[in-house]
Amino acid sequence: MSPSAIKRLTVNRSEELAHHLIGKAVQRNGDQISLKSRLADVIDVEMITGNSGPDLTYAMKAHLDFVIADEKSLPRFAIEIDGSSHWANDRARSNDERKDRLCEQAGLPLIRVGSDFARKEGRWTVLEYLISNFYTWQASEAAQERGELPDDFFFSPFLMLRPEIKPGEYLFDTLDADARTLITRLWRAGTLPTPVVEWHSFNVPERRSVKTYAFIPAAPDRYLVGASEIRASGFCGITNSELGEQLAIAEIGSLATQWANGKAVAMNTKHASKALDEVRQAAIEDRCLTTVPTDAHELKLRGAQREQPPHTPQTER
Fold first, then answer.
1. Structural domain for 268, as ranges
2. If we measure between CA atoms, which residue out of 251, 245, 121, 263 comes closest to residue 191?
3. How many domains does the chain have?
4. Which of these, 234, 231, 221, lies nearest to 273 by C-alpha position?
5. Theoretical Cys-Cys bridge with 64: which of 25, 78, 104, 153, CB 3.0 to 4.6 Å?
6. Model-level pTM?
């Protein structure tokens, strides 16, 4: 047999990196990774759609980049790494939509990430964070079924805490936790006028994505504006807007660091308003995933008036 007839399971650096990160995230649960599994071998398309038609034909040809299965080889969830063609190509978007629908009908959670899946914020890469949230969500579902959690318990990634260096101190275990802590510290130091970040997420149907903008005033007529755009998906454990919020605020944290070091990274009101105009238009078209005023044109940038830190009484000695 000619060696040239053998194909690699991972064909590029991006897939190799994704495989490495997924392996780190799932090994603690004793799960296994399957690469490039045919969709028809993972879900029973005939049970969902019948034994004929375009869905079955598609499923016989399409594959999933990564399938995570338990010790009994039962798939838990799948992961798709979407390159640039998935954002702009009509045929690719149509195929993605079909794959998403079939997986949803089969009950197979599917996560989609773009080329920034290895972006690191705090102790997490985006991909590892999403996988960790899935396992935590699944564990909470199982605990609820066993009666260990109340029936009205609602899982949220913002409920998770991680211990800090100092004993007894904890921090929310999210992608934006370090950024939020930094922003509060800069506010207390007088570098930022407020610790409050405003953010808005909205659907972009033509790109099958969710876009998020985050805003915080830095000075009069100056704003730090963070942005994120993620692939729309129905993954378990975290919503699209929750992930978009965290990534946009994480970017605000990076910008705030540069601002504190004297770099001119803040936008003036005119340029920051262009991002807000996108939010307004999304609100008018009912594409917003976050709360906005009834009249979208009432959306305004927060002013730079200084907010005072709460007074902390000193303990008498």
1. 159-298
2. 263
3. 2
4. 221
5. 78
6. 0.88
